[in-house]
Amino acid sequence: MMERRQFIKSGMGALATLAVGETILLTATEASAAVTEPLNYAPAADGTLQKVRPDYSKAKSVKSVCLNCSTVCGIEGFVQDGRVVKIRGNPLDPNLGSFMTCAKGQSGPTINSYPERLIYPMKRVGKRGEGLWKRITWDEAYAEMATRIQRCIDDGHPERVAIHQGRSRYESETSRFLNAIGSPVLLNHRALCSSNKRAANYVSLGETDWESIDAERCRYFLNFGANFFEAHQGGLHLVKRVTKARFDHGAKLVTFDVRLSNTAGRSDEWFQPFPGTEGAIALAMAHVILRDNLHDRDFMADFVQPGEKQLRTWLAGYTPAWAQKLSGVPARDIERLATEFAAAKPAVAAFTNRGTGAHYNGFNAERAVVMLNALVGAIGVPGGYCYGLDEKLSPGRYPAPQPAPPKVTIRTDLEDPPEWPLANRWQKMKVGQVVYDYLKQGRARLDVYISYTIVSPMTWPEGRATATEVLCDEKLIPFHACSDIIYSEMAHYADLILPDATYLERWGMDIRNNLELQHYVMLRQPMVPPPGETVSFPDVLFNIGKRLGPAQAKYFAFGTHEDYVREQCSKLPRTGPDGKQFASGFDYMKHYGVHVDTSQPKAYHVYRRQLDAAQLAGTRVDEATGCIMKADKPGGKERAIGLVVRGQPLRGFATPSRRFEIHAPEVAQVAATAGMKDDGMPAFHPVPGLERLPRDRFVLTSFKWNVHTQGRTASQKYLAEIVHDNPMWIHPSVAARIGAKSGDMVELTTYRPRSGTVGDQAFKASATGKEEVVGRARIRVFVTEGIHPKVLAVSNSLGWKFGGRSTQGRSGDRDALLDASGQGGVRPALSTAPATDDLRNGVWWDERRGGRGNGVNINAILPVNPGPLVGMQAWFDTVCSVRKV
Ligand SMILES: Nc1nc2c(c(=O)[nH]1)N[C@H]1C(S)=C(S)[C@@H](COP(=O)(O)OP(=O)(O)OC[C@H]3O[C@@H](n4cnc5c(=O)[nH]c(N)nc54)[C@H](O)[C@@H]3O)O[C@H]1N2
Ligand SMILES: Nc1nc2c(c(=O)[nH]1)N[C@H]1C(S)=C(S)[C@@H](COP(=O)(O)OP(=O)(O)OC[C@H]3O[C@@H](n4cnc5c(=O)[nH]c(N)nc54)[C@H](O)[C@@H]3O)O[C@H]1N2
Ligand code: SF4
Ligand SMILES: [Mo]
């Protein structure tokens, strides 16, 4: 032990002074390299931290894009003395349209100077997961990765190289890298996030994964499980417009959430459905709308499949009384809400988010909600359920440097698992949560696993069981390189750590749906240079690419990521909206941060657009369906490109029938290939295991805080100060039952899901058919009326084991944390600035100092549970029991 200590530096603070070739032991209690004092503080003469008042008038302004959540707001940063001292919104971002940001946006710069950032590339020297690292050079890191990847290519197995990304904004860059080497295995997080919602929009509308509600003009919002006042992929943008609509013309907001979220609390009416019954409520509303003839007869006749008559028959059994029995929401309220919604048509919107989607039956439930808009003719109309066109970084508008590698065409089970045939149907959504099980089962083999902005041991189901087990197993993952900004649980299980630049220190193009219904694009540019030896991940990939054989290297000859982005901007205008002239599109973007294409009208009534003569050339009309058919080439396969409506050749929807598809024959066909029976209608399927839930069993759900984003923000101390622990919300009736009050500790036990009801098998169904425990956790409770009596709710984002003192809730001088063996902390001589370190006394929630601690990671005991067809993780369906300890 003594000998070992002589060459091993210990603790994260030591990282800052680590020389190349030196070894460091990173223990579970400490995390990374000291950089500078916290934002807006400076060390005084006596060594204490003093708040300094920044003078923004002297600061340099840099436009960029926030990425503290997936809403990606346009921002403006103010830089002084090499530091970002302030962020505000960029009003040119059409979605944001103001100087406002949320609390997370404000705290973004704190991550730049987090005293425990990773700043050097490091190579593992002990056993994987032991935490023993050697500082290496980037040349060594690139060479090692290039050699391993080249071996896969030379062996004819490029698909053994995978990139696994969480909320990345670099799909264009990562795809280029994998296309160059010939691997299709770009794994992502969509099945954990929103794949049911995306699939539902695609099935119904045919051409978008995401609605852009024309909220400012909307009169009635029916919100099924979106918490857009706190979370939501675009929440800030929606809140602004919903609020305006309510003030301007008294728009009504109705929310279905099992929990009194901030959105529920700000709604005109809040209903708490039994989990997984949102689809039933939507179907019953549809029943009422048709029964009482409140629908838009013309729109349905012209544009909806199936016809009104068939739909009436199909909906007949889905009565409000039936939905009340399942959901607990009173039938009279379902009747009333349906009537109000239809009366306010067409400026109305029924929409969802994960409260509806993250269930076994989420795909159909989402479809049923989207259907409500079609029944009342609210699709694509002012104030209604709209959608934009061209919301991708298409190479036509944003060209990538040439030559670009051809798209890889091979498929593998890992990125395209055959059990979930709708996962990759419209866009590559994958079924990320089964990846580790597949590796375990030998269904796929990987030689090189590159992880980027993902912390599966924290944010994924069975994170600390299956994910960690596989990440530790060198037979299953022979080599793991992790790009991260802090020493996360992902980095801990890597062989190579690739320290990244933060979103305020790097380049990138960004785009998302625009609630103003026009195409736009944003530029992310470094506000300050990346610290230490951190390198932006796309540059890491490009630098590896340059070291591969000539067949691959030629795709990376263009230069750096900055050059890549410059090329992507090359077709953008050079004259600004205020008449300013620029030398290039890149310069335009650097100045404004945003470009909005105002040359096209707002995307209302997309489906009513007329087909022009060129589009109509060589077409024929199918008499039975009214579809305008065209072959892709002479004698080639015909497909519908439009619809004849009242004698006019219109574009219609981009579905196979060119109609809004409530009935989607494609879903039925695809389901059959996977051995499932499905009639192609958004029928209601109860969640297996949640029907007739025994009195002592509950449904465990989770939710997101307004000041935290997934596994991204716990290291931002100002946010961790606001929320650092996550007691479980329980209803007073549950509290009485188990004899607990707020603040008491309880033991929570979770159980594996049972088989499904539509011919499918739960992915990891209990083998015996009997109740099987997934895991147990101890957690404090918060007793509140604001939760459904059968639901227990715990937030995610917290309970880190690694990541530094802010995430781990550990305060103090790092040297004071040293244990008897000299480990667990940092020797004073090695720490850069312990006296000015805000984490020293600032982490007042440290349990050892009488604080409440850093919370519980609930994902450790949530089962991997992909729903049928799309494969989205049924996060909110877990059966559990609870007892006081
Ligand atoms: N129980 C429960 N779990 C959930 C959810 C839930 O509702 N309930 N929600 C799910 C959802 S919607 C999603 S999208 C997933 C997301 O979960 P993930 O896919 O894991 O994504 P993040 O949490 O954003 O990724 C966090 C990791 O990225 C690192 N990181 C942050 N910024 C950077 C950077 O600039 N560069 C690099 N290289 N790394 C960075 C962080 O340090 C951390 O290690 O979580 C899911 N997990
Ligand atoms: N502050 C913050 N903003 C974020 C994120 C974040 O982590 N934090 N993450 C971003 C990402 S990646 C995503 S995917 C979005 C997610 O955005 P949302 O989907 O809006 O947020 P969630 O918290 O995942 O779930 C929404 C709501 O569903 C409720 N819910 C849980 N179970 C049920 C149920 O059975 N039925 C009903 N009706 N409701 C239920 C929860 O109480 C919660 O309020 O947010 C994005 N924005
Ligand atoms: S909502 Fe907040 S955290 Fe998300 S992108 Fe906008 S400012 Fe950043
Ligand atoms: Mo997400």
Automatic annotation (TrEMBL):
The keyword Aminoacyl-tRNA synthetase does not apply. Residues 59-116 form the 4Fe-4S Mo/W bis-MGD-type domain. Pfam families: Molybdop_Fe4S4, Molybdopterin. GO terms for molecular function: 4 iron, 4 sulfur cluster binding; metal ion binding; oxidoreductase activity. InterPro entries: Asp_de-COase-like_dom_sf, Mopterin_OxRdtase, Mopterin_OxRdtase_4Fe-4S_dom, Prok_Mopterin_Oxidored, TAT_signal. Keywords: 4Fe-4S, Iron, Iron-sulfur, Metal-binding, Molybdenum, Oxidoreductase, Signal. The keyword Metal-binding applies. Residues 1-33 form the signal peptide. It comes from the Bacteria. Its cofactor is Mo-bis(molybdopterin guanine dinucleotide). This is 4Fe-4S Mo/W bis-MGD-type domain-containing protein. PANTHER family: TETRATHIONATE REDUCTASE SUBUNIT A, TRIMETHYLAMINE-N-OXIDE REDUCTASE.
